[in-house]
Amino acid sequence: MGSKEEVFWAAEILEGLGNEFGNPEGDDESDPFETLIQTVLSQHTNDKNSGLAYRQLEERFKIKPEVLAEADQKEIERAIRVAGLYRNKSKIIRALSKTIQDKYAGDLWKVLRLPVEDARKALLELPGVGFKTADILLLFCARRPSFPVDTHINRVSRRIGLARKEVDIEGVRRDLQSKFRAEDYYRAHILLIYLGRRYCVAALPRCYNCPIESLCRYEHKTRKSE
Question: How far apart are CA 166 and CA 106, in angstroms?
C-alpha cells in the first residue's frame, strides 16, 4: 500500500465520488467467457454498438468456446459488423474460443481461480487479451484484486494525481492498487469512469462543478467563465 496519507486521500476521493454518483456494488459473478466476448466487441466502439453486436451474435450462436471455435467466420462477421473492425474481431473471437477450448476444456474458471498473478499471466497469453481485458475478467467476474485501466481511468488518475504522469499503463494500475484498498477496487474503477465521463472530460475538464475539486491535484484547474 501507499503511505497512510495517500491512502486516506484516495479514500476521501472515493467518498466524494460515492456521494455524487452513488456506490456501485456490482452484480453476482458473471460468466467469464461471455464477458470476454463482450470486451472484445467493445473495443474501439460505443456501448450501444457493442451491445447490439453481442445480442446479434447470441441470436446466431451459443456464446460458448466449443461453439464459436467451430463457427463460420463469415457468419460471425455478419453478426458483429455493427461493432466495427468486425473482420479482426471475428478472428480474435475464433482464436480465443479455440485456445480456451483446447487448453482449458472451455472453462475459464480454471484460470481465474489460480493465484491472481498467475491467473493474470495466463489470461495475457490468450489471443488478443491485453492488460485491461485480463483485469476486467479478474475483477468483474471473479472479484479478484485487480484494477482495470481504461481510457477514462488512465486520463483521470494521472490528471488528479492518483497515478504518476510518467508511468505506463501498468504503472497506473500499480499506483491505483497501492492507494485503494483491494475491497474498493470495483467501486473505485466504476466511480473514476463516471468522473471521467461527466466532469473530468478530455478536452476541457469541468472543474468548477466537480465533486472532488477540493481534493484534486490537477495543476490547471478550469474555472467557470463569468
Answer: 39
C-alpha cell at 89: 474481431
Please indicate, yes or no, whether residues 44 and 128 belong to a single structural domain of this protein.
yes
Q: What is the pLDDT along the chain (226 residues), one digit of tens a residue?
A: 778 999 999 999 999 999 999 988 766 668 999 999 999 999 888 889 999 999 999 999 999 999 999 999 999 999 999 999 999 999 999 999 999 999 999 999 999 999 999 999 999 999 999 999 999 999 999 999 999 999 999 999 999 999 999 999 999 999 999 999 999 999 999 999 999 999 999 988 999 899 999 999 998 777 654 3
Asked if residue 114 and residue 18 are part of one domain, the reply reads: no
Nearest to 156 by CA among 220, 209, 218, 215: 218
At 131, which amino acid appears?
A: F
**CATH number of the domain that 168 lies in?**
1.10.1670.10
